[in-house]
């Protein structure tokens, strides 16, 4: 059977230096299809972008001019399609759109020279990291076995024949291995979203639970969905969350008490709060409200996951992994749906945490008395500020996470795209903490509104009036009552949930990601 010919154009081989900078034997420079590119290469055979020579700007100008079909000083989608086709590189409309979108900083629908160069350099750096991650043997080449292993790590199992077919599409010299130059030339003008290793290692993961409900859901590969591996991840995450929330429940209850009862005249300290709880109800009272807080993990996680998948379809994404803006939209909407579904449980949790000894016999008794005395509307007290809090929480959480991720990749990623578990945990913890900080005033107002009706003769205020009342009587600091115990529980919560999550994954037979 005839071996398929690689479809890689010599275009990039002429623009970028072909010295092997990853590892392996150096390459000779090939003659490009375009005479102008050939002339540029002959002028300085080792002055390409990768080697940092003085000719790289001129070479990039030549490539830019080749792709700027209508010669208007910018590359639009049509220019890119026609220019690449002339040079033997075929891309779909979706791929072309993604390339332009990835590099288009001023959002004018086209790439000027500066944007074009920035896109190529940024994309080439990511490709280098992925190549090194795939190169398990560290010999500067990728073979079929390494492709199979890497896809297996992603949760996708393929045969050796399928791996060889993938390899042949990039292999220009018939060695049945891919060196750095072949890898880069093939992928450089593919959109950045086609880098599964970066996505794999930097998934905004469910490996920790800080007791909040607004985190954007994780994504799963097609293989994980088909094999049922996704629900095992959710079960492991739910179990980790249950243990984590139980261990940090005293701090969570103290936070609720400080949000509702602390004021300028009643300045509750952390030690004083714990002493007051133990004196009123004994040591077990520190865990009031934890039962409902743990029970609601399962329905909330399941509803959020299903809603997130539906939102992805509704916003029209046919990509397995979304970009940051799509994740924010889909995640926020999924959060609204999940929170709306289980919100009565959220109100019950607050009431149970605030109850006095003997006030309720349990969760069901609490719910029954609320329904009889206050009506159905009591179960949706504080609903509006809770929903409004999802946007700043999810937005800042994702934005900070992406910023930290990119900073790490730019500064420290030299041999692999895998940042390691401690970097992932640190980025996730910092981003989640920033999200909580931004949405905390809304969370405090929500908790006070949930607790209002439980106070006999207490004022019933709207969200805006309660905001004004808190600022007027307690100052801006009043919007952050209970912040100290809230942040005190973050580190132990993350540590405990991670350890439990990893152990539950092993028990459930989930492959390590």
UniProtKB/TrEMBL annotation:
Residue stretches making up the EF-hand domain: 55-90, 91-121, 122-157, 158-193
Localization (cell): Mitochondrion inner membrane
Membrane-protein topology: Multi-pass membrane protein
Positions of Solcar repeats: 228-314, 322-407, 419-507
Keyword terms of this UniProt record: Calcium, Membrane, Metal-binding, Mitochondrion, Mitochondrion inner membrane, Repeat, Transmembrane, Transmembrane helix, Transport
A cellular component term, taken from the record's GO annotations: mitochondrial inner membrane
GO molecular function, one term: calcium ion binding
InterPro entries to which the protein is assigned, alphabetical: EF-hand-dom_pair, EF_Hand_1_Ca_BS, EF_hand_dom, GDC-like, MCP, MCP_dom_sf, MCP_transmembrane
GO term, biological process aspect, one: transmembrane transport
Family: Belongs to the mitochondrial carrier (TC 2.A.29) family.
Its job: Calcium-dependent mitochondrial solute carrier.
Protein name: Calcium-binding mitochondrial carrier protein SCaMC-2
Organism encoding this protein: Xenopus laevis
Phylogenetic lineage: Eukaryota, Metazoa, Chordata, Craniata, Vertebrata
């Amino acid at each position: 059977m005839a071996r398929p010919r690689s479809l890689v154009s010599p275009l990039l081989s002429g623009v970028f230096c072909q010295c092997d900078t990853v590892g392996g034997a150096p390459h000779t420079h090939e003659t490009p299809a375009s005479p102008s590119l050939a002339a540029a290469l002959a002028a300085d055979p080792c002055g390409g972008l990768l080697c940092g020579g003085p000719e790289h700007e001129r070479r990039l100008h030549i490539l830019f001019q080749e792709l700027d079909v209508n010669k208007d000083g910018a590359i639009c989608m049509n220019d890119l399609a026609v220019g690449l086709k002339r040079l033997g590189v075929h891309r779909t409309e979706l791929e072309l759109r993604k390339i332009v979108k990835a590099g288009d900083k001023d959002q004018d629908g086209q790439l000027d020279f500066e944007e074009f160069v920035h896109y190529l350099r940024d994309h080439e750096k990511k490709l280098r990291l992925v190549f090194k991650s795939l190169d398990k043997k560290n010999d500067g080449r990728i073979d079929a076995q390494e492709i199979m292993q890497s896809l297996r790590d992603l949760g996708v199992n393929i045969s050796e024949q399928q791996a060889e077919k993938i390899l042949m599409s990039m292999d220009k010299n018939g060695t049945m291995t891919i060196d750095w130059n072949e890898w880069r030339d093939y992928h450089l003008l593919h959109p950045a979203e086609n880098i599964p290793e970066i996505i794999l290692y930097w998934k905004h993961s469910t490996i920790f639970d800080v007791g909040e409900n607004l985190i954007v859901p994780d994504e799963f590969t097609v293989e994980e969905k088909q094999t049922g591996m996704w629900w095992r991840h959710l079960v492991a995450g739910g179990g980790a969350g249950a243990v984590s929330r139980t261990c940090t429940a005293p701090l969570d209850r103290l936070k609720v008490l400080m949000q509702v009862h602390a004021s300028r005249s009643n300045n509750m300290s952390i030690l004083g709060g714990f002493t007051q709880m133990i004196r009123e109800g004994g040591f077990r009272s520190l865990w009031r409200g934890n039962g409902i807080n743990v029970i609601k993990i399962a329905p909330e996680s399941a509803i959020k996951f299903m809603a997130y998948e539906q939102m992805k379809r509704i916003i029209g994404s046919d990509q397995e992994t979304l970009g940051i803006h799509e994740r924010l939209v889909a995640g926020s909407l999924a959060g609204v749906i999940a929170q709306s579904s289980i919100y009565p449980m959220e109100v019950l949790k607050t009431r149970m945490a605030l109850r006095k000894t003997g006030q309720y016999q349990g969760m069901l008794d609490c719910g029954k008395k609320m329904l009889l005395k206050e009506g159905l509307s009591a179960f949706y007290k504080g609903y509006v500020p809770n929903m409004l809090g999802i946007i700043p929480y999810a937005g800042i959480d994702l934005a900070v996470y992406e910023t930290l991720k990119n900073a790490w990749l730019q500064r420290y990623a030299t041999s692999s795209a895998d940042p390691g578990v401690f970097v992932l945990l640190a980025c996730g913890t910092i981003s989640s903490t920033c999200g909580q900080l931004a949405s905390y005033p809304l969370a405090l107002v929500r908790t006070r509104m949930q607790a209002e009706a439980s106070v006999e003769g207490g004022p019933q205020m709207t969200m805006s009036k309660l905001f004004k009342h808190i600022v007027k009587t307690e100052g801006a600091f009043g919007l952050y009552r209970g912040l100290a115990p809230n942040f005190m529980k973050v580190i132990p919560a993350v540590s405990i949930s991670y350890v439990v999550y990893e152990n539950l994954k092993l028990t459930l037979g989930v492959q390590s990601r």
